[in-house]
Amino acid sequence: MEKKLSVDHLLGIKDLTKEDIELIFSQADEFKEVLNRPIKKVPSLRDITVANLFFENSTRTRLSFELAEKRLSADVVNFSASTSSVKKGETLIDTVNNILAMKVDMVVMRHSAPGSCLFLSQHIDAAIVNAGDGTHEHPTQALLDAYSIREKLGSVKGKKVVIVGDITHSRVAISNIYCLQKLGAQVMVCGPTTLIPRHIEKMGVIVEHNLIKALEWCDVANMLRIQLERQDVNVSYFPSLREYTMQYGLDKKTLDSLSKKIVVMHPGPINRGVEITSDVADSEQSIILDQVENGVAIRMAVIYLLAQRRRTAE
Question: How far, CA to CA in Å, does 308 sit from each of 5, 71, 243, 274?
Answer without folding.
Answer: 9, 16, 50, 42
